[in-house]
Design a protein that fits this description.
Blueprint (H helix, E strand, L loop, with lengths): L7 H29 L1 E2 L1 H7 E2 L4 H10 L4 E4 L2 E5 H10 L4 E2 H9 L1
Antiparallel strand pairs: 1-4, 2-5, 3-4
Length: about 100
């Protein structure tokens, strides 16, 4: 049987590396879930600053600026797609991107 000895300091270093890796992976999963959250058209309109109308949201969807998901006859938008559109469209900013930039 193979036996390995490590000092307390080495153990703490290894533990720290594992904790960091786990934290980064959890943040990545959390970010992916946050961006993948489906929003109703009303919620999607409210993300933009200035707020957009449903007519504008539908037009942008038809023009290909946004992609929608249809589930059970209802239309939803992924939060990540809305945030990306907010950076593509110069006049509009997404409210959430604006909040994130203020925190930085």
């Amino acid at each position: 049987m193979l036996s390995i000895s490590i000092s307390d300091e080495q153990f703490e270093q290894i533990l720290s590396i594992f904790k960091k890796a786990i934290r980064e992976e959890m943040e990545a999963v959390s970010r992916l879930q946050w961006e993948s959250k489906l929003l109703s058209p009303d919620e999607a309109c409210n993300i933009f600053v200035p707020k957009i109308s449903k007519v504008t949201l539908n037009r942008w969807t038809k023009e290909g600026w946004l992609c929608c998901q249809k589930i059970g006859g209802r239309v939803y938008y992924k939060r990540g797609d809305i945030l990306n559109a907010g950076t593509s469209l110069k006049k509009y900013k997404s409210y959430e991107n604006e909040l994130l930039s203020k925190k930085a």
